[in-house]
Amino acid sequence: MKLYEQYPVSLSNSLSGKKELFKPIIPGFVGMYVCGPTVYNNVHLGNTRTFLTFDIISRYFRFLGYKVRYVRNITDVGHLENDDDQGEDKIGKKARLEQLEPMEVVKKYTEDFHSVMRQFNILPPSIEPTATGHIVEQIEITKKLLDLGLAYEVNGSVYFDVKKYHQSHSYGILSGRNIEELIESGRDLDSQDEKRDKIDFALWKKASPSHIMRWPSPWGDGFPGWHIECTVMSTKYLGEQFDIHGGGMDLKFPHHECEIAQGTGANGKAPVHYWIHSNMLTVNGQKMSKSLGNSFLPSELFSGSHPMLQRGYTPMAVRFFMLQSHYSSTLDFSNEALQAAEKGYKKLSSALKTLRELSHPGTSMPDPSANESLESLVQTCYKEMSDDFNTAKTLAVLFEMASRINDMKSGNLPLSSLEVENFNSFANAYTGFMENVLGLKEESGSDEKLLDGTIGVLIGLRKKARADRNFALSDKIRDELKSIGIQLKDGKDGEITWSAE
């Protein structure tokens, strides 16, 4: 039996607002599309959480045995300064201000994005298409929507007719927006004489004489709208209907709502079965934003150079911090939370290192209770992760498993009492969830080696003090280490292990 049959995944579908059992369109295959970055600026921590969420999802599907095609796009044209089809293209504006070619801007910030993803051990997608690489396809789907009467052309620009679409479908199905309220609340725009209604959105925009990024089209020189790129690239690589689409919560409206309208209008069927949205990071209850001065670049987190940070943290400690909350929940940032995450990561990482050093001697006196306990932990680990990719609850199980590993090393849980098959199953699960699912790779910097060596020396001194029956010194070493967060554990045969509290 395949693991994905043994542990079926349930997920929260943003479209229905309910938790649903995942049923792929093609058995054993997952098609997933996630809206990638607009590459005109450095990647902030809030953006990183979204890509981490879908890294975890794709990792877990693969871990269960699914074949996954994960598409994450690069927006390198068409994203204007606001969602009302007004203002400059963000990349074109950056190019003008820095006196660069737009593709120089794209290359610079795409490389920055990839560097940040590597630092956080976020795996690359199966396919990473760009908007500029699919101009022809965007023109073709715009022509198709015009032929279907769901779009109209005015002065070289083409707009999607939302009210016309809404006559036979439901605009607002994802976000829960009411079309009448949207019409009433819409702002008066300079281009209102072009649009039939305020809620219509651009499929293709006419390029002004000063606009840098432009392509020829049946309607004159112009550039694609932001929403149409994802419809084109998702359907090209995943088909007219695919399993999962997602991104940050802020993309629900208008971006993803417009994608649904475009895909449904062009192909006559809803493009996506399951919509998943990650929630935001907050700082002291406030949304992270550059204007408030509370947003962080990953480099600032690693170096500790941001004024709100007490010190720097490693990429894996920050990754662990973001995994401590379910992806759909807000996650509040603080120095205290990062410090706790750092301790938690080190504890689980230390247990993984210990596990690799253990060697099963063969079973002599199996303990049914001990074996059942290990098997239960393995089963629970899968079940928690299969319940809407709940990394927080999965980490809680891994902490229990880490305690068992430390018991194995100390001799409090003799390896000889465990069936070889159970021990191997337990070891494979712990290693697999740590490295392959949660992506928590080992960090072996010089500071960590120095800490290991220093504690090793102190443990040696404590062993000698106990052998000399100098219990006052032995207790002093133990208590002093505990005061700085290092817990010593006395095992059988005089073995002493340690862990970070």
What order do the helices and strands come in, and which of them pair?
Elements: H1 3-6, E1 10-13, E2 18-21, E3 29-34, H2 45-63, E4 67-72, H3 90-98, H4 102-119, H5 135-147, E5 151-154, E6 157-160, H6 162-166, H7 179-185, E7 201-206, E8 222-224, H8 226-238, E9 242-248, H9 252-267, E10 272-278, E11 281-283, E12 286-287, H10 298-303, H11 315-323, E13 331-333, H12 335-357, H13 368-386, H14 391-410, H15 420-437, H16 446-467, H17 471-483, E14 486-490, E15 496-500
Parallel strand pairs: 3-4, 3-9, 9-10, 11-13
Antiparallel strand pairs: 1-2, 5-6, 6-7, 7-8, 11-12, 14-15
Describe, in plain words, how this protein is organized in 3D.
This protein has 17 helices and 15 strands. With 501 residues, the protein is α/β, with parallel strands linked by helices. Helix 5 (135-147) packs across helix 8, helix 11 (315-323) crosses helix 12 and helix 12 (335-357) packs across helix 14. The protein is elongated, with a radius of gyration of 27 Å. It starts with a helix and ends with a strand. The mean pLDDT is 91.
Could you give the order of strands across the largest sheet?
Answer: 4-3-9-10
Spans where pLDDT lies below 50 across 5 or more residues: none
Taking the sheet with the most strands, its summary is: 4 strands, parallel
Annotation, overall tally of beta strands: 15
Q: What structural class do the secondary elements suggest? A: alpha/beta
Strand content: 5-15%
Mean pLDDT: 91
Q: What fold name stands as the CATH topology of the largest domain? A: Rossmann fold
Cα-based radius of gyration, to the nearest Å: 27 Å
Assembly state: single chain
Helix content: 40-55%
Question: End-to-end span in angstroms?
Answer: 39 Å
